[in-house]
Amino acid sequence: MNKYILFTICFCMTFSVFSQDIFGKWKTIDDETGEAKSIVSIYEKDGKVYGKIEALLKNKNKDALCTKCEGDEKNTPLVGLEFIKNLKKDGDTYKGGTIFDPESGKKYKCTVALNEDDPNTLDVRGYIAFFYKTQNWIRVKN
């Protein structure tokens, strides 16, 4: 009987680790200072994956506007800004969409995946051609 209980516990623990996904809230980390910068929400909408800024942690001006955005998003608040758009699942990776950097005003192709070694770390890569930059975001636990 004890073998069955142990097996059930191990199975449930294994299943819960492998069933984690990218959806939820993530803390972004500043590349230069290593400090937490913002809280981002990753979610699905109309079969695609998006990300928006939920809160600014580093910026003293919590009401900051996206002055480098274009079109309808120009001068809209950073909090609430949908800056990851149109990602599609491809195996364990989400790709095919874009990520916008509100600080530089540049848009990049984007891939997002859970870190292979730590499912509480999200690898977010923005790239143009062969040039890329990867950030590691940390899962926010409720």
What does this structure look like?
This protein is mainly β and 142 residues long. The protein has a single domain, classed as Lipocalin (Beta Barrel), CATH 2.40.128.520. It contains 1 helix and 8 strands; from the N terminus they run H-E-E-E-E-E-E-E-E. It has one helix at 2-18, and strands at residues 24-29, 36-45, 48-56, 82-90, 93-101, 106-114, 121-128, 131-139. It has an 8-stranded antiparallel β-barrel. A hairpin with a 2-residue loop joins strand 2 (36-45) and strand 3 (48-56). The protein is globular and about 35 Å long. The N and C termini lie far apart (35 Å). Mean pLDDT is 87; it is low at 3-19. This is DUF2147 domain-containing protein. Pfam families: DUF2147 (PF09917).
